Amino acid sequence: MLAALVVFWVAHTFSPPIAPFIALPFVLLAAYIGFLQLRSGAAVDVPARLSELRAMSWESFSAAITDAYRKRGYVVSPAEGQGYDFKLVKDGELTLLQCRRWKVNQVGAGPVRELARAVDRQDARRGICVAAGDFSAPARAVSAREPVVLLSGVELVQLVRNPKKPRRGGTK
After folding, report:
1. Three-state DSSP state, 56
2. Which CATH class is domain 46-159?
3. Adjacent-strand bridge partners of 100
């Protein structure tokens, strides 16, 4: 808005009748940027949100995750096999979801391998392993060569904007 005011003042000094028209694009741009900032919400304290997620029961954690995917247009259903917790379907594509709310700091390669095998068995497009902690280097290596996406930290907090209010309970 300050730029629009300066442009208006300069334009008004040289040609008062057209000053509002010269400043108008700057006013509109400032209003649009303000709208985007307002819509994005308040800044999130990632470590605090992760602590809240880690403190949840598995049922509450998985409900927060599945609710976030439902809000993104996925149809969520419980697992029908081993290696994953939920099936996500969107636009006819199947994605398998594994929720790991472990108290330990890192998820190892074993659960990621299980998810990769389930993706192959279920003929899914990919698997998503969500963890409230982090992933070990071997788990990241498995993910690099398999159709498995690892989701934790900032990405997890972005997925789950308000982890305190999940709408539905989990199945475990």
Report:
1. coil
2. alpha beta
3. 131
